[in-house]
Amino acid sequence: MPLLVEAAAQKHLARWAEAAGLSEPQFSVTVLPGNRPLAACGQPVTVQAADTRQAARMRFIAVCAGNGGWRYEFSVRAQISARVAVAASDVPSGRALVDEEVLLERHDISAIGDSIADPADAVGLSGKRTLRAGELLRKAMLMAPILIKRGEPVRIVARREQIEVSMAGEALDAGARGDSIRVRNANGATIRARVTGAGTVEPASVPVTASPPSE
Hints:
Layout: H1 2-20, E1 23-31, E2 46-51, E3 58-64, E4 70-87, E5 102-108, E6 126-127, E7 142-143, E8 146-148, E9 153-160, E10 163-171, E11 175-176, E12 180-185, E13 190-197, E14 200-203
Parallel strand pairs: 9-14
Antiparallel strand pairs: 1-4, 2-3, 3-4, 4-5, 6-7, 8-11, 9-10, 10-12, 12-13, 13-14
């Protein structure tokens, strides 16, 4: 029976790793022994996942259906390692990471739910605090860099097909790329606008522009 549970746990972890895009994942699964003997089952036993939120503390249930059947819960401990993003050098808080500052290294991520599998997902983001060389990068410690500060002058750019209209404004909020902030335009009206680049925004009713406007 433990072998069936182990196989189910391995299959679950493989699906999870594929969905997470992990690089070269490796698993070690331990099925903890139960405290009561299992009765024989006259048909194939099925195994169901009961709680897989934390790899280090999973629960699976073996089920023998039919008359005289039973359900038995197993605790499973898994150790997961994969090549994940780490800081290649010290990076000051607030400065965006560049390509050469992010490496892939193998780490135990059994108790880490927000590791970064693709270095490209970290490049361009900045640390909420100083990042140390060799430190495993986690989504919770990174953020999009602030491109506009409150009170700064901004250029409001609206595009429709081949037509572009722009005017000066003042940021009433700080924001990173894609954030919606309040902006006071040259006419004194306050509008909602999305941050599209350093010092540039577009009215929130216009789709986000992939590239910053030309100077």
